[in-house]
Structure formats: C-alpha cells, structure tokens
Design brief:
- The complex is a heterodimer of chains A (178) and B (125).
- Chain A is 36% helix and 26% strand.
- Chain A has six helices and six strands; from the N terminus they run H-E-E-H-H-E-E-H-E-E-H-H.
- Chain A has helices at residues 4-17, 49-54, 70-80, 114-124, 145-152, 160-173, and strands at residues 22-29, 35-42, 84-90, 94-102, 129-136, 139-144.
- Chain A has a six-stranded mixed sheet.
- In chain A, helix 1 (4-17) runs antiparallel to helix 3, helix 1 runs parallel beside helix 4 and helix 4 runs antiparallel to helix 6.
- The longest helix of chain A is centred in the first third of the chain and has 14 residues, at 4-17.
- The model of chain A has no long low-confidence stretch (mean pLDDT 92).
- Chain B has 125 residues and is an alpha+beta fold.
- Chain B has helices at 6-18, 35-40, 42-56, 95-107; strands spanning 27-32, 61-66, 78-82, 88-90, 116-119, 123-124.
- In chain B, strands 2-1-3-4-5-6 form a six-stranded mixed sheet, with helices on one face.
- In chain B, strand 5 and strand 6 (123-124) form a beta hairpin.
- In chain B, helix 3 crosses helix 4 (95-107).
- Chain B is globular.
- The mean pLDDT of chain B is 87.
- Classes of the chains: A alpha+beta (178), B alpha+beta (125).
- The interface between A and B is large, with 43 and 32 residues.
Chain lengths: 178, 125
C-alpha cells in the first residue's frame, strides 16, 4: 500500500463485509506526543477469540480465498514506523482496530488522500453510514453521513451531485495529509 | 460537524427532482476493492467512475464495490453489468481504460473487448 489512507480503506471494507451499519474512522495527532492515532470502529458481526487470534496471520481469512493480507500489512507498516496495531472485537458487538504510527518516524508512510477513501466508501456502499473525524492541534473536523442523509430528505446520498458536494466538503476540511 | 450548506442542498435537491429517474438501473459498475485491488489502484478507478458519472449526468447507473475476485495479479478490476446482458469483467485497469469503458460500454452499450477478461462465466474474449 502506498499510503495510510489506502490501508484505512481496506480495513473499512472489512467492516462492510462484516455487515457493519456504522463505520467510524478517527485520525488524531495527540497533543504532546509524536503519535498518529487511527481508529476504525464498526458495529459489524465481530470476531470470537479464536478468529481474533488468527487475524494477523496472512494465511488466515474468513473469505473464500487463501490469504488475508489487510491486517498483517497494516500491522507491519505501523510496527516499522515505531507504532502498533491492536484489535478489540466481540461477536455481535463489532470491532475496533487501533493503529499507532510514529509521526516523525522515517518509515511512516504518508497519510494520503483520506477524502478519496471516505468518498469511495460512501459511493460504494451508500446504504451504510460513516463518521470521519480528525483532530490535529486546534483543528478538528467531523462528518457524519446520518446527518447528511437526514438533510437530503430522501434523495440518495449516492446521487453524483451529492457525492461531488461531499467531495468538495472533505477536500476543504481534511488537513491530515502529509 | 461540517455540513453541506443549505444553498448546496437546495440546488442539488431541485436538480434531482427535475431529472427524476424512472424505474431501476440500466447498468451496474462493480469495482473490486479487496486488499489486492486497493494496492493496485482500485480507489483511483472508483474515483474515475464517479467523475464520469458526474460529467455525463447518467441517471440509470449504479456503482458499488466488492471484495477480492481471486485474480489478484489482474487487479485493478471492474465488472460491468447491463440489463439483459452477461456481466463483463475488465482487468488491469487504468483511469484512461476506465474512461473508455465508461464511454463505450456503460454509455454506449458495447463492451470494450481488448480490456475484457471474460463475459458471463464462459465466454472469454
């Protein structure tokens, strides 16, 4: 993966396949620390302890294929940049993936285009809801598709004009990119 | 929370109701968004599809994403389904190829054979 935003898209796509209705993505540069904290939280079907124990194994997958590389790749990228990846999950109660990257670490990939990641999720699965939140110093930005859908009064969020407006909103407000 | 402005929404809603579609979708575009697809550039393909949809103003095209199709070395991939036609799988996509597929297959109804792997489950181009 070229950047962190692509890893996040991959992890959030896992949430979609786990039948999550609400997926929350948080990026935060914690004050007073050199860490970038990323959370992907979902209300999907979750994992039992046995499945969770194998989630970092690249040759384990719940899908009909031979490999499951998403989590191992992100875990490796985080560890190479002085960080870590943890997963909390319970059957029926969803999953929380927390990833830390050393912000100033030479091996940290760039954050990349989070606007494209959020827009791809909304366009690809408009029936789900998403929260994107970022915090960096005094700056904070939050978007919640449940509120946008409420304002749209029945018009689909996947309508191209709506997606274009959301793209502009994301591009104007997302600052954690480097 | 950051919101779309009232003016934005009012304009979009007016335009939507003026061009209200009838019935269901004529075409469905599925961009394969597994780990392999994402690493190979599937997000850019999805963004290209969204751009083309916005530019052409087509009202009868649905877009979605799916997981790994099991042909990781051929990613990025997309499947185009037109009503009454077998689905066509396109492989090794670039933004330029996707724009051509959108114009000729999604809009024009004619598959772009040189970029296609397979139609339906049997015919191989």
């Amino acid at each position: 993966m070229e950047d962190i935003s692509l890893h996040i898209l991959d992890i959030a796509e896992n949430s979609v396949r786990a039948e999550a209705r609400l997926i929350e993505i948080v990026l935060a540069r914690e004050p007073g620390s050199d860490l970038l904290r990323i959370e992907v939280n979902d209300d999907g079907r979750g994992m039992d302890a046995a499945t969770l124990a194998k989630a970092r194994d690249p040759f384990f997958t719940t899908k009909h294929k031979r490999t499951g590389l998403g989590i191992p790749l992100l875990s490796q990228a985080a560890e190479q940049a002085g960080g870590s990846l943890t997963i909390d999950s319970n059957p029926g109660r969803g999953t929380r993936v927390t990833v830390l990257f050393g912000w100033a670490h030479l091996d940290r990939p760039p954050v990349g285009d989070m606007a494209a990641t959020v827009l791809t999720l909304i366009a690809g699965h408009p029936d789900r809801d998403y929260i994107y939140e970022e915090r960096e110093g005094e700056h904070s930005f939050r978007i919640d598709t449940r509120e946008i859908k409420n304002d749209l009064e029945g018009m689909p969020i996947s309508e191209p004009a709506v997606l274009s407006a959301i793209r502009d909103l994301l591009k104007q407000n997302i600052r954690i990119r480097e | 929370m950051a919101k779309l402005t009232i003016a934005d929404l009012k304009k979009i809603k007016e335009q939507y109701h003026q061009g209200l579609r009838e019935g269901g979708f004529r075409a469905k575009i599925t961009v394969h968004m597994g780990t392999c697809g994402i690493a190979a550039g599937a997000r850019a393909i999805m963004n290209t599809v969204m751009d083309e949809l916005a530019k052409t103003g087509l009202k009868d095209v649905a877009i979605t994403t799916s997981g790994c199709a099991g042909l990781c070395s051929q990613e990025p991939m997309a499947t185009i389904e037109l009503t009454g036609e077998p689905p066509v799988k396109y492989i090794a996509l670039t933004e330029e190829k996707m724009r051509k597929i959108f114009a000729e297959h999604v809009k024009g109804g004619k598959p772009v054979k040189e970029y296609a792997l397979v139609a339906g489950h049997e015919t191989t181009y």
